[in-house]
Amino acid sequence: MNLVARKIVWARTALKRVLWGAREFGALRIARGFAHLFWLGLRRPGRAEVTTTSSGFRIAFAYPAQLMPLLVVFEELPDPELGILPLVLGPGRVAVDVGASIGTWTLCAADTGAMVHAFEPDSENLSTLNENVLANRLASNVITHDLALGASEGWTTVSEAGRRYLTNVRLASSPLETSEKRMYRLDELVLRLGVTRIDVLKVNTAGCEADVLTGCQDLFRRQMVGIAMFLDGLAVRPLLAELRGLSYELGFYDGKTRAFITVDNNLLLDDLRPGPMNRYILVKHSSVVI
């Protein structure tokens, strides 16, 4: 897909999401959010903060590197998949956030009372993540890890992007290009951490989701994961399909009906996506009830 085609797809997706937000939150809030976004563009403050309307989370971010436009426009975390967390997490439960960025998903998981292991190899993102965890008084429920997860163990090089949530990592081909960040396989690391079960695993790693899944296949074979949500991408879909033979179901979460939608064929994933804000493919163990 060439640059023009990608921009057209991006514009269509953005329009669908804004229209969805107008229906969900009202035109007045959307107008106020766009005014805030415009004001940030004029001031370019270096640091900014949004307080979400429903949960009251205070989410700080560096401007413009960590700007999440829809967070500012909606004044809310709009991912429907977040609705699963209060249903399956709580005190005594464990969540793992791979690619935690500035901590929006981590905050939602920790707010249930669960213990969250948040992995973020980008130093600037990690600093803001820790800041947001402290500001929302959730430090006792979050353990942050300054490292990367992937298909194998080694040293990494970090490919920094202008938008910090697009930063990704890969194994260094030589010691000279290493960024001094360690990469581990999740299925090996959880043993070192003493984690015996992951109730919810979330993976959003700017295109490296398939590598993370490859590095945690043993966890699924041992049925140590209750629910996993992977940012959708063509590379990850074939790997997810293999989990059906391990008592896992593949699908989406519909935030409106609060229901898990099972998808029996990878070819139907795009057709059965509940809405424009559904960015994650879910893998659910058959024993987990939503």
Overall description:
With 290 residues, the chain is an alpha/beta fold. It folds into two domains: 1-77, no CATH class; 79-285, Rossmann fold. It is 32% helix and 24% strand. The protein has ten helices and 14 strands. The chain has helices at 3-25, 27-43, 69-74, 85-88, 104-110, 123-135, 186-193, 209-214, 217-221, 237-241; strands at 47-51, 58-62, 94-98, 115-119, 142-145, 148-149, 154-159, 168-171, 181-184, 198-203, 225-231, 248-254, 259-262, 280-285. The strands form three sheets. Strands 5-4-3-10-11-14-12-13 form an eight-stranded mixed β-sheet. A four-stranded mixed β-sheet has the order 6-9-7-8. Strand 1 and strand 2 form a beta hairpin. Helix 1 crosses helix 2 (27-43). The mean pLDDT is 90.
SSE layout and pairing:
Layout lengths: L2 H23 L1 H17 L3 E5 L6 E5 L6 H6 L10 H4 L5 E5 L5 H7 L4 E5 L3 H13 L6 E4 L2 E2 L4 E6 L8 E4 L9 E4 L1 H8 L4 E6 L5 H6 L2 H5 L3 E7 L5 H5 L6 E7 L4 E4 L17 E6 L5
Parallel strand pairs: 3-4, 3-10, 4-5, 6-9, 10-11
Antiparallel strand pairs: 1-2, 7-8, 7-9, 11-14, 12-13, 12-14
